């Protein structure tokens, strides 16, 4: 568990990094800063909707700053993912030669159904996300001092003010969002230019992919994330609330 002294130190690192790099820092600068400051003590979170963040990281980070180790990538294996997402995960790990941290909840889907009732994702989606995403993620992040995510400000109103570097109060470590300022056009241009692997569900009409029972194709013209938890007021799973 992070002590008060460690928390203060990490908060200071985040503030110094944000000041040093400024609001216009590139994704490459943010990723190399992360490696320079934290060495092997950080992890990259990936939802396997695409490999953009991992492609940028693999090119930007000088491996000598991470002791020539493989980059660590964390994937939340909720037990509810599309088979295409799991296939993308396996392909991405092979392509970039990553150290995969495949995080699973304490309970299997069957065990959760038995204890809390079948299809908790339908009766209480917030609790389902807490048990299958937030709780296991918090435990998995505990050994690290920083995590890197691929969230972007244009993805949703709840992410519109996402900082490039901050101290994550919810998980107790430094959070880096290298792609936060990227527009949809820049994101797609990177994919096209570098031939980055994308989850096949994206081309099938799913612009935002989560767990299979809670992900639908959005109505044309609506917010790309409107297909997540469709029919409910829920818009985030709780991982990026802070």
TrEMBL record:
The keyword Iron-sulfur applies. It is an enzyme of class 1 (oxidoreductase). InterPro entries: PAPS/APS_Rdtase (IPR004511), PAPS_reduct_dom (IPR002500), Rossmann-like_a/b/a_fold (IPR014729). It is found in: Cytoplasm. Pfam families: PAPS_reduct (PF01507). Catalyzes the formation of sulfite from adenosine 5'-phosphosulfate (APS) using thioredoxin as an electron donor. Belongs to the PAPS reductase family. CysH subfamily. This is Adenosine 5'-phosphosulfate reductase.
